[in-house]
Known about the structure:
By secondary structure, the protein is an all-alpha fold. Helices cover 83% and strands 0% of the residues. It is elongated. 19% of the residues are buried. The model is unreliable at 1-18 (pLDDT under 50).
Amino acid sequence: MFDLAGVDDSAILIPESPQEPSMAQNTSQPNQSGLIAAAEQKLKLFRWFFFAVFAFLLYQLLLIMSLFADVIIWAVSLALVFWPVYSVLHARMRGRDTGAALVFTTGVLLLVLLPVLALFWVVVAQSAQLYPTVSNWFTQISANPDGDVIALLPNWVQQRWIQLTAYIQANPVLAQYDPKQFVLNNIDALSLNLGNIGTATARNVLLGFVNLMLILTLMFFCFRDGERFLQWLFTIIPMPREQTEAVAMRVYRTVTAVIRGALLTAVVQGLIAMVGYVVAGVPLAILFGALTGLAGMIPVVGAGLIWLPVGLFMMQESEGWGLFVIIWGLVFVSLSDNIIKPLFIGSRAGMPILLIFCGILGGANVYGFTGLIIGPILIAVLLAFISIYREHYLSESSTAVADTAADTAAGVAAETAAETVRNS
C-alpha cells in the first residue's frame, strides 16, 4: 500500500522505550552525599582541633610571658610616648632603623632612667648609713633592758615621749599600760624586721637593675620593629581595619596622656616641694625637691616618701619648721597630684576625670605600679568598644527597624488605597 523504497532510513524516527536508570547511577548519589558529609565532619573536627591547640599554645605563651608582663608594658608605653621624637630622629638618619633605635634608646636612658637610678642610689646609700645606727640602738636596748631607753632617742622624740607618758599616767584607763615595757617586749621583733628590710632592699635593687636592662632591650626592638609588628597585628585581628585603628589610637592617646601626665605632675610636685624646703631652710633643698618629684610617681606613698622624713629631720632642729614642712607636703605637694594628674590626663585622653581617677587608683590597687597604665588602658578600650557598638551595630539595628516600619507603613497605605478604589 505504501512505497517505502525512496524513503531514507534516517528519516524514520523510532521512539525509544524509556530505560531504567542503571545501578551505578542509583548508588552514586548516596555515595556522593556520604563523601560530602564525611568531608564536612572532617573539616569540623579539624577546626575544633586547630583552635583547641591554638588556645593551648596562647595560654602557655601567656604563662611564659607573665614573668615579663610589667617590663613589656613599660617598654611599650615608653616607646609610644617617645615615638614622635623618634620619628624625627629616624628621618634625619635616613631610615636607618637599627642605628636610630640604638641612639634613641641610649637617649631615653640618659634623660629618663638615670634620675631614677640616682634616686635608688641615694636611698640605698642613706639606708646603708642608717642601718648600723638603728641596729646598734636595738642591740643596746636588748643588752640593757633596765637602762634608760628614752635617752637613746633624739631630743624632740624624748620631749614627745615625756608628754605621752604624762598623759597616760593622768588617764586612769591608760595608766595600767607601760609604754616603755611595750617597746622592750617588741624590740626583738623590730630588730628582725629591720634585718628583713635590709635584705629585701638589696634584692629589690638587683631586681630593679635587671628590669631596667630588659626595658631598654625591649624599647630598642619596639623602636626598630614596632611599626611592622603593629601592621602585622592589624591584619590578624578579626575586626574591620578602621575599627582596629580607632581602638589602637584610643589606647595610644591614653598611654601617652598617662605617662606624660605623671611626668608633668612629678615636675610640679618637685618644684612645689623645693619651694617649701628653701623656705624652711632644708639642706640640699634642690636635691630633695628633685627626689620628691621622682617619688611622686610611686603609687600610694608618692611624694610623702621624701617630704615626711625631711619634715621629721627638721623637727630635730626646729619643731616649727619641721611641722611647716610636713603640712606643706601634705597640703600643697601631695594634694596637687590628685588635681593636676586627672585634669591633664582627662583632657589629653578625652575621658571623664572620674574614670581616669578610678582607673589610676583601681589599677594601682589591682596590678601594682604597672596598674597606673593598665587601669586607664582598660577603660579606654572599653569606651572604644562602646563607641564602635553605638556607631555601627546599634545604628544598623535602628536602620533595619526603620526600614521594616517604612515597608509596613507603605503596605498599609497601599491596602488602604486599594480598598478605597474598590469601594468607589
